[in-house]
């Protein structure tokens, strides 16, 4: 299996300065692990607490570049492994996945639903709207095409009532942490191709820092067990997002080692 590593370094609605640093550190470590040179997309800019309507056009060049890098990796026949800053970077990747692999499932491993629309969001945060955009509930300008019936939220536990209604209406499978067993995830995948997205806030705080801390999450060994239960040959790509490296209470090198160790259970 030939792998490629893509690292996003352009701001996509970042409200802190740690996730871009975390993406670069993760991408460099993955490159060393997999013996490939990472492809770096875009350049960092300062964080801001801006509304999605401002953050989205500001990220247009980065999102276009990220999709182009993913397209190149897939055209080359590699399995892409992406280190991204925010979940909003998946506005670029998920439509490409839907176009390439229309029958694939998406495992969205995240404490949050990321299923708000412009009509339901209170925070205005673009990262909380990405999965809904990919499923066609609103138009990001970067495409859609993802079938919500082929999406599973794994480890989700911080979902607003409006999101919950949208998720239920769309037919997205939602697995709370207690339900996110290797058996349940493997049953959902059912031998199909898969795209895997991990936001590290899915973990109980204290392991891998993320911008948003949500208690009572999964633990690293539980993610590793899920990964180990999945057929590596069916993984079409992996995204690792939201490692908040700067100013963390957890030593950076320990978080990186944990990311690599967890990733390796996929066998990709």
From TrEMBL:
One of its GO terms (cellular component) is cytosol. Pfam families: Arginase. The keyword Manganese applies. Gene3D superfamilies: Ureohydrolase domain. Keywords: Hydrolase, Manganese, Metal-binding. Signal peptide: none annotated. One of its GO terms (molecular function) is manganese ion binding. InterPro entries: Ureohydrolase (IPR006035), Ureohydrolase_dom_sf (IPR023696). Belongs to the arginase family. This is Arginase. It comes from Microbacterium keratanolyticum.
């Amino acid at each position: 299996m030939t792998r490629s590593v893509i690292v996003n370094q352009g701001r996509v609605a970042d409200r802190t300065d740690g996730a871009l640093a975390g993406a670069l550190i993760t991408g460099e470590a993955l490159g060393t692990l997999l013996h490939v040179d990472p492809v770096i997309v875009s350049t960092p800019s300062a964080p801001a607490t801006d509304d999605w309507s401002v953050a989205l056009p500001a990220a247009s060049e980065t999102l276009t570049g990220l999709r182009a890098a993913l397209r190149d990796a897939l055209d080359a026949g590699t399995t892409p492994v992406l280190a991204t800053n925010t979940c909003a970077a998946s506005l670029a990747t998920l439509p490409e996945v839907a176009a390439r692999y229309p029958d694939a499932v998406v495992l969205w491993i995240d404490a949050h639903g990321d299923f708000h629309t412009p009509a339901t969001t209170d925070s205005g945060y673009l990262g909380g709207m990405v999965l809904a955009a990919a499923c066609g509930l609103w138009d990001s300008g970067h495409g859609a095409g993802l079938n919500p019936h082929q999406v599973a939220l794994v480890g989700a536990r911080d979902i607003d009532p409006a999101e919950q209604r949208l998720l239920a209406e769309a037919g997205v499978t939602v697995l709370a942490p207690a339900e996110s067993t290797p058996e349940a995830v493997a049953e959902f995948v059912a031998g199909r191709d898969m795209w895997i997205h991990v936001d590290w806030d899915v973990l109980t705080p204290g392991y891998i820092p993320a911008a948003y801390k949500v208690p009572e999450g999964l633990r690293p060994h539980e993610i590793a067990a899920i990964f180990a239960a999945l057929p590596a040959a069916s993984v079409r790509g992996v995204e690792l997002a939201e490692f908040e490296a700067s100013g963390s209470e957890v030593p950076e090198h320990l978080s990186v080692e944990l990311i690599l160790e967890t990733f390796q259970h996929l066998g990709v």
